[in-house]
Amino acid sequence: MKIFVLLPRIPWPLEKGDKLRAFNQIKQLSKDNEVILCALNTDKKADKEAAFKALQPYCSSVNFIDLGKVSILFNLAMAFIKGLPIQCGYFYNRKAHKKIHDLIERHRPDMLFGQLLRVAEYIRNEKTPKTIDYQDVFSMGMKRRSEIASFYMKPIFNMEYKRLRRYEHDIFDDFDVKTIISIPDRDLIDHPKKEKILIVPNGVDHEYYSPKECEKKYDIVFTGNMAYAPNVNAVEYLAYQIMPIVWEKLPDTKLYVAGATPDPRVKKVASDKIIISGWIDDMRDAYAQSRIFIAPMRIGTGLQNKLLEAMSMRLPCITTNLANNSLHAEEGKEILIGNNEQELAQHIITLLTNKDKADTLAQNGYDFVHRVYDWGMATKIMEDEMRKS
Question: Mapping DSSP to helix (H, G, I), strand (E, B) and coil, where does residue 71 land?
């Protein structure tokens, strides 16, 4: 099968969840299929040469289409006027649309695969069989952001929420195959036939993210793209509400926040007890140098790759119900769940003072992700459905 893959971003380096998912799905699909890749690019600093080298082994054709800032501003305005989600406007460009159509005509693929609704406008009217990966429910993520937004931003988030919800519904029937990352996300799609959406979870590279013995410099670690709003919110929650409770009992506890492009609000919390790393070449070092992992997510949707990675490296993990609804780890056995700052802080204190409990939780979490989360198995679910279309 010849598959034309359209992405809103170049999937390299793997510092963001959508890039990680896209790269690993391409890698798996390439084993028994020909993959033609087309990725949009809004980042002038992107190292396209490095990206090409990383992607070329899995693709028969690699194409990057740059979107300039002027065109982005124009298309944002057009999306606003047309009632489309701002996210669609940001990634849509008429000239890019023609290039994508020409590539499809040239390669004549058996299947079009678009990642995220951000690229749906480019392919929703093509006659070739099509797959759309919703991945997360963007509308609900926007709704949750609106609930904690300042009064002047709240109307903007609410408007985008309504547009995204409508768009998630409208594109449904344009695609032959629909996928999403978890059952809770699928259930939030506003469409009467949402049960037809395939659940295609993420996986984890267990050979890469494997236990590593080294000196423990930090007590707690939190990782991710630190410009992403849900992660920024989680860092502030840790710094201002959770850690002060921990410090009352364990005053020397150190928190390590590791991830690319930290937002100014993330940088602001840095201190002798909260270390903000920024970009690091190998995220495994952040996990290996820490005793426990926490993901205190209060907004956002989808499956947290960071939890999969930490568990695969045999770290005891703490999170919220919001994140575990997609993960489906067994509470108390494979993961600890806290839904307010007191519960989360107490879990931290327990794991830092009870090594046996921490070791047992880490081993159970490690066994869980090895049993449930695998890129090959996950991608095959989607590939099998593609072949039927």
Answer: helix
